[in-house]
TrEMBL record:
Pfam families: RNA_pol_A_bac (PF01000), RNA_pol_L (PF01193)
Subcellular location: Cytoplasm
Gene3D superfamilies listed in its UniProt record: 3.30.70.3110, DNA-directed RNA polymerase, insert domain (2.170.120.12), RNA polymerase, RBP11-like subunit (3.30.1360.10)
Known EC number: 2.7.7.6
Coiled coil: none
InterPro entries associated with the record: DNA-dir_RNA_pol_30-40kDasu_CS, DNA-dir_RNA_pol_insert, DNA-dir_RNA_pol_RpoA/D/Rpb3, RBP11-like, RNAP_Rpo3/Rpb3/RPAC1, RNApol_insert_sf, Rpo3/RPB3_RNA_Pol_subunit
Source organism phylogeny: Archaea, Methanobacteriati, Methanobacteriota, Thermococci, Thermococcales
UniProt keyword annotations, A-Z: Cytoplasm, DNA-directed RNA polymerase, Nucleotidyltransferase, Transcription, Transferase
Subunit comment: Part of the RNA polymerase complex.
Name used for this protein in its record: DNA-directed RNA polymerase subunit Rpo3
Superkingdom assignment: Archaea
GO molecular function: DNA-directed RNA polymerase activity
Gene name linked to the record: rpo3
Reported function: DNA-dependent RNA polymerase (RNAP) catalyzes the transcription of DNA into RNA using the four ribonucleoside triphosphates as substrates.
Length: 261
């Protein structure tokens, strides 16, 4: 049985890049889909309008509100549970023009659940126009609507590109790889570029692809990039997704045992 390993390549406030080793591609894709579809966040799900004299219909403003990322406190909710907490947060607004209404103008009745950034424009009000509403946010999952997706995730196969030194100008490819910040190994006969991020062969070398330039796919190894919208810390998104996967697997095994018994 292979040992599963994770190697962090890069960590920023809003993104993380890591190498996942020792898993089948089915698991890699399951992790990607779980992050997008199963990790819950708060988002506006219903809006009650009292006044709206703006140029935008109620439905358009409601849609804009739904797409504003809201902070989701990890320590207060069991986000890795298969059943979500039934909890509603009210974000209210009362504004009069002339003004531009921003996400930071929303008043939340829960200080832990609020817009991630205060400078998302919602609507412009002309002089004398008023906008008054209550917006109700709840926990949900991306599989039900994109507004509940915690961010974005993608992965690529971990590969090594072998470049023969028989190619005239191979030094240029080596220089390009180093400029891209890619690990480069060199032997007497070839240069080997490890693609922790995409590496595109210039058109002048395309005739050598598949022969003197060939790509080796490292088995069961993938480069993941996860980005957060800000609702959750990016490392928590990955952690919660893995826990949800484990819970689903346990439920599946228990159900099989029940049916078999």
């Amino acid at each position: 049985m292979k040992m599963v390993e994770i190697e962090i390549l890069e960590k920023r406030d809003d993104s993380i890049k890591f190498i996942l080793k020792g898993v089948h591609v089915a698991f890699a894709n399951a992790l990607r889909r779980t992050i997008l579809a199963e990790v819950p966040t708060f988002a506006v799900d219903e809006v009650e309008f009292y006044e709206n004299d703006s140029a935008l219909f109620d439905e358009i403003i409601a849609h804009r509100l739904a797409m504003i990322p809201l902070t989701t406190p990890v320590d207060r909710f069991e986000l890795d549970a298969l059943e979500l907490d039934d909890y509603t947060v009210t974000l209210s607004l009362e504004a009069e023009g002339p003004a531009i209404v921003y996400s930071g103008d929303l008043k939340s009745d829960d200080p832990d659940v609020k817009p991630v950034t205060p400078d998302i424009p919602i609507v412009k009000l002309a002089k004398g126009q008023r906008l008054v509403f209550n917006a109700y946010a709840k926990l949900g999952r991306g599989k039900d609507h994109a507004k509940w997706q915690p961010g974005f995730v993608y992965y690529k196969y971990y590969t090594k590109i072998h470049i023969s030194k028989e190619i005239e100008g191979w030094e240029k490819l080596k220089k390009l790889a180093k400029k891209r910040g890619l690990p480069v190994e060199e032997t007497d006969s070839e240069v080997i570029v490890t693609t922790i991020k995409p590496f595109y062969i210039p058109k002048e070398f395309e005739e050598y692809e598949g022969d003197k330039i060939w790509e080796e796919i490292v088995p069961d190894t993938y480069v993941f990039t996860v980005e957060t919208n800000g609702e959750l810390p990016v490392e928590e998104i990955v952690s919660i997704a893995l826990k949800i996967l484990m819970r689903k697997a346990d439920r599946f095994i228990n159900e099989l045992q029940r049916l078999a018994g």
